[in-house]
Amino acid sequence: MSTLIRNTSQKGLALSLLVSSMLSASFVSAKGVTWDDIENDANTPEDVLMYGMGPEAQRFSPLQQINKENVHTLSPAWVMSFGDEKQRGQESQALVYDGVIYVTGSYSRIFAYDARTGKKLWSYSHRLPEGIRPCCDVVNRGAAIFGDMVYFGTLDAGIVALDRHTGKVVWKKRFEDYRAGYTMTGAPTLVKDQKSGKVLLIHGSSGDEFGVVGKLFARDPLTGEEIWMRPFVEGHMGRLNGKESTPTGDENAPSWPRDENGELVEAWHHGGGAPWQSASFDVETNTIIIGAGNPAPWNTWKRTAKGDDPRNWDNLYTSGQVGVDPTTGEVKWFYQHTPNDAWDFSGNNELVLFEYEENGETIKATGHADRNGFFYVVDRENGDFIKAFPFVDNINWATHIDPDTGRPVEVEGKRPPLPEPGEEKGKAVEVSPPFLGGKNWNPMAYSQNTGWFYLGANHWKEDYWTEEVVYTKGSAYLGQGFRIKTQYDDHVGVLRAVDPVSGEIKWSHKEKLPLWAGVLATKGGLIFTGTGDGYVKAFDEKTGEELWKFQTGSGIVSCPITWELDGEQYIGLASGYGGAVPLWGGDMAELTKPVAQGGSFWVFKLPKFEK
Amino acid sequence: MSTLIRNTSQKGLALSLLVSSMLSASFVSAKGVTWDDIENDANTPEDVLMYGMGPEAQRFSPLQQINKENVHTLSPAWVMSFGDEKQRGQESQALVYDGVIYVTGSYSRIFAYDARTGKKLWSYSHRLPEGIRPCCDVVNRGAAIFGDMVYFGTLDAGIVALDRHTGKVVWKKRFEDYRAGYTMTGAPTLVKDQKSGKVLLIHGSSGDEFGVVGKLFARDPLTGEEIWMRPFVEGHMGRLNGKESTPTGDENAPSWPRDENGELVEAWHHGGGAPWQSASFDVETNTIIIGAGNPAPWNTWKRTAKGDDPRNWDNLYTSGQVGVDPTTGEVKWFYQHTPNDAWDFSGNNELVLFEYEENGETIKATGHADRNGFFYVVDRENGDFIKAFPFVDNINWATHIDPDTGRPVEVEGKRPPLPEPGEEKGKAVEVSPPFLGGKNWNPMAYSQNTGWFYLGANHWKEDYWTEEVVYTKGSAYLGQGFRIKTQYDDHVGVLRAVDPVSGEIKWSHKEKLPLWAGVLATKGGLIFTGTGDGYVKAFDEKTGEELWKFQTGSGIVSCPITWELDGEQYIGLASGYGGAVPLWGGDMAELTKPVAQGGSFWVFKLPKFEK
Asked: Which of A422, A439, A283 is nearest to A353 (CA)?
């Protein structure tokens, strides 16, 4: 700029001022979201820049304009329909930046709305090929934003970067073969490698039910070029700067069995572990922290040496949480919630970074409510197990997590047995929680007010039996059949406040339908979430008392956020029922049948009735 | 009942009480909506039992809890998504009875919601065959209710009666061949023949753009059996009790031309006149009053004797308003707004029954804002023309309506001429209003406060030219091409208050997008309507000042209603963009492209913030 301003002839000055103001405008605008903005996301309530509302994924906002005293007056400010004749599950968490809301919709769509009025600024609907294979509905969980680009994943195993002002595609990449079952539903996230200073776009892949090898990717956010790729099946080879890097774990994959010829079994080649949720990032230790998916196939015996005990075959690095080095994509640490997972518990549920005091010490941990029914507190500096306790009733596959080893103490007979000779199916065993989990993907919140976690859990169970399975590209690779059943007459969903230090359930709020929405906690002492039958609700963080609800017309399976604009606090979330429950949920299908599909974004605020 | 109660043995008494209470319950419930309820609909704000909110179709409510002082606090109470992956135009007016809202949706669906919570009580989605031919989107404009049944029309030229408690089909009838272009989009209505005392279900048919002969039907509401049918092309034969009754008008159809062989021309056989809107009912004169559609095809020369002046061939009974005898289905009177309609002005717009004083006399009239741009006041006792005046700017096809004859004084050269020899298309002429009308189907309201009509008009125009056409079953039968254009840069839609006595435009409110929603007036001094860009709005009846708006997320093309429940006044309407404008609207397509599709029912009330 300074060189331009040196020109002092009158015409030149006018021109230089014009150019200068144009450049400033474009400079400010071109700058857009910085890493510092993202790193501080949790403390800057005027924007929401990351899935999880910050690298620690706490979903806690310092806003308190909406509080226990006035939340009962909360009212819709505006609503926008996603449109098209496309509905199904709307699982997105929105982002807010510079007065614009970015929200993804079902069928790989993204919308930019004026945050003040809801006016649609642009939308992008990804052209999906025939033959995509999303296991669990055509959902998308959200976007990432950096500089002047917004990023989101597509069901054809792609990721797209769009100009945040225009919605024009800047780049798009397909990271794998969607015909093999690879998809992308999770929100990508940004991290800054504290060593190199590079900002990276991190995203995973879905597809464990089709026998993919789950992979985590780091890309240059400006170009989309891959920087590294890390597979989550032990012994598979990683990639760095376009070249083979290191195998994941031991190149011989000793946690996976071999056949009579000494070859790794079929399952190893299609071993799952897909990190399909979003990564958290521990800036202090420079570690990407993410859950790894279930091993494939579901059938435990396909991943166990013939005649041996499955507990001898952990099938690393599946159904656990992983610390990844952003510089190289190396696994820094791994903790496995469910060794040789026989129940599709996966390890994908979000990892929330939090600290707590115990015996005078500050412990830096991850909090994780696993599908297997246990809440885990793990040392996030090294992946060491600290503690675990049940967060749902009637867990019957394990009695507890051994406090010394961090391994589950399994109940005998809960791994669905092989079929008897001559039978096509094994004997059914009743397992709780079922594969849909004590809690599923729907992310919990951590309140800095109470130090408690707030999570949308479910009480249900399943009949589970084995079936024969051979890998066929693009076909379901399960080897197990199931039927989901209710546990209680009066509820499936149960919103719970959980003390991660004592393991106490502080309060429970029951919902007739399964809970499948994310949770938001605010400094105002409120817990927000949505219900399967269409309500967005607010609860007292301390007592669980329901303080407010509003019927949005379709079921809610999205993640609420809050932000401040022009001095007012807003709550926003998508409404639109779908996701895994109505597709896979057995007895839940009857419960959820009355719920109408939808597709809209809702914004609420306290009423201000100026005339 | 009394016979049962005579049994006084203890067990017998218990039984008799049980049976008695069951019978009472079923008796009360079986009674349901009576004719008296419908006749008094406009004065009983706890329910809305008829399209038009009463037999006079005034869309005026005596409710005034929501008023000019507090309407700015009006807030959503609940919303329900229609669901499915079906959206498009939601043009319905809802009904309210006994705490239940009945609303029809696109694609021939109907929903029953608990008026307090929005909980879906039942829904019915009509199975539509391949090959239906709705000209103007897959819309439905509403249901009728009588006894314990609700009724609505289907796009496959059918009408369905459902149990209002369960949504189970009681009867369904297909009244014509949908492959020929017959459909049904309008709400049926109930009338009580004051002579026979019979309550009749009245409904019309759509399809003029496919060359149907428009027909009006009366049915037994309990069984669906046809009582009479009246075609609206002169000389076509009516039906009564399953037998030929009388021809409509003169059996020789002198208002239609004959060919060189003395045979009635092709157009007569497919002459249109379809009464696709809903009937009003004048109890006092025992007259069904309804608009008749445009003559088919659009091309004026196909309905004019070769070489003659079209003004000599009126093509009765099209593009006018008809008084029909409910006892026999005979035409009692007819007034034609657009003789030999060359512009697809149709006559279908609603007929509102109202009274006014002039020169010390009470005049019982119909008020009708025609697509042709003129507002008509017609004597509803005999169909005599009283007065007409323009309600939109720049009408260019006629200078005025002759006060003596009631016939338009046409501007020469505004009937699109035949193609020059050797040409395929005729020379284009610019016509205003275009065929989409100065106002279209979207019904106006009449306020008993002001004595004014409130209507959603549009300022647009078209290029119009003739083309050759020969009737082919199921194909468009127009013989005319067109392109709709804007008239003004700043608006297309214009909400207007019109004094039917003086012909004055009392106020105008401009909207950028075309207006396509119905209007509601209330005793509270408010005018409600919806806009193409998704707002529901309230205006001051006197000044047109916009007092309140709320963004519903999709365009609004439905009819707002109001009712009272548990002492609170509610406003309800559907949101979901579609209808004729985006399909046929030429330059409007660009204007309306940003509007997202939707499909939901919205309920608003004044906030009551009890904790």
From this structure: A283
